[in-house]
Amino acid sequence: MRVATSQIYNIANIGMNNAQTALTKTQEQMASGKRILSPADDPVAATQILQLNEEVTRTEQYIKNIDVAENSLNLEETALDSVLTLVQRMQELAVSAGNTAVLTPNDYKALVAEANSRIDELLNLQNTRDAAGQYIFSGYQGATQPFSRNSDGTFSYHGDEGQRQIKASGSVAVNVSDSGKRVFMDIASDNNTFYTEANPSNRANPPARISVGQVTDQDEFDAFYPDDLVIQFSENGAGDTVFTVTNSTTGQILPGANGLNEREFVSGQPIEVEGASFTITGQPYPGDGGAVPGDSFTLTSTGKQSLSGTLTRLSDAMNAMDGSQQSKDHLDRVVSDTLANLENAVTNISVVQGELGARLNTLESTREQNLDSKLYTETVLNDLEALDYAEASTRLEMQELVLSAAQKSFVKVAGLTLFNYIS
Predict the structure, then answer these.
(1) pLDDT tens, residue by residue, 396-412
(2) Which positions, given as ranges, span the membrane (predicted)?
(3) Whole-prediction pTM value?
(4) What is the C-alpha separation between 135 and 132, in angstroms, rounded?
């Protein structure tokens, strides 16, 4: 059979190229340490490798999430420990304040100064932020400062009741924050009480302020509970600023001591109604007698009392201590309520701390599961794609031999010619 010279060259070229390609691939495998360099090498194994790599990446992210969660929960635990230390000091201060027969008004001024300093400290702790700048007690609204002091000296909560979560594994999500409302606001009060608020739409400038207030007659207030009050300002025919007190539940206007619905307003003078006492200071806007209403304030009854409210009421009662029997009796009642409410605050915070411990335990056990899962996945992945160096070395030597033989045989065949046989 006649074989053309070009055919000889083509056959030799294909053979050497194939040998060179096989040799190069083996060299690449040995350099990378991987058996599969492209999906074409083993389509089934390549698909499995892709899935396993995704699983490893996902597990590594879960482990990073756990690091973030642990940092956040440890920060919250530290903040709550500081709050409990603060509460313990305020319990000691309240006990001291109960010595009404011994302490002088000047002594109470020193106690008020410390109480107010502790209230400022509490506000800072309630507004604790994590390493990412997120507020840990604002619920879902991590970017929103949860607590603020109003111009009237009261405190407001601006967060919500949610709890942010982080995925610790495919099946485990852990709460990494707590609502400040639950931790610091919704604390059981030893007695029915109330909180006061100014209407955000009030127009007085500077704004009039309403005090935190006190329950001065518990039996009378208990009979009123759970109704609420609205204090509405207006101007009478003589041009004087007056106000009405309305039961917002029944719509009934409660007359003053003079039997009239409209009450004369004197800045800072105690307003006593339904066993509650509070003051409004400043000059409330009385309205224009037409479309624009006057300023208003609300008194909302509740069976709960915020921690800041408890401390503020104690501070106000000590500040009002003038040595009279009436102020002593009032302070004695406030001290009793304060000690009971602070004990309730300790219980409430301790419950939250117990939950923090449980979450940290969950994170630790989940971390171990993730590490075990990652190790197993990487082992399977290694079995699929890792190169057997002993087999590859033997194969490389064989391929080098094949390539060398192909090159040498081509040289010999290419050198053949009929002239070699002519003598």
Answers:
(1) 567 666 656 666 666 66
(2) none
(3) 0.76
(4) 9
